[in-house]
Design a protein that fits this description.
mainly alpha, 80% helix
Amino acid sequence: MPQSTVMDVLVLVAYALAGHALILLNDGPYWDGWIIDSWQRNRNWAGMRRFYAEVGLAPLYYEHRWLGRLPQRLLVYRLVAFASFLASALAQHRIEDFVGGVGEHFTGA
């Protein structure tokens, strides 16, 4: 990997940590996490399966059921959320490298 690419990745990781580190430190669920947490704690798999089937997201039932079996499931959810933000930033950076940069493309520079 070229030195500039390594530095770019390190800068993106630093920005991701600066902007989203609270996700890793908070020990509570967010948004619909309260409902999912309740289903997992109470082992209400039938209710969770019915809900996801009714809203057309049946595969999410299997994802949340699998994650619900993990001993540190809330930590895993936080790591997945943080990794998603970081992966998104890295993918966007790679795409901009591929197309030559968004600013240069639109400004004609």
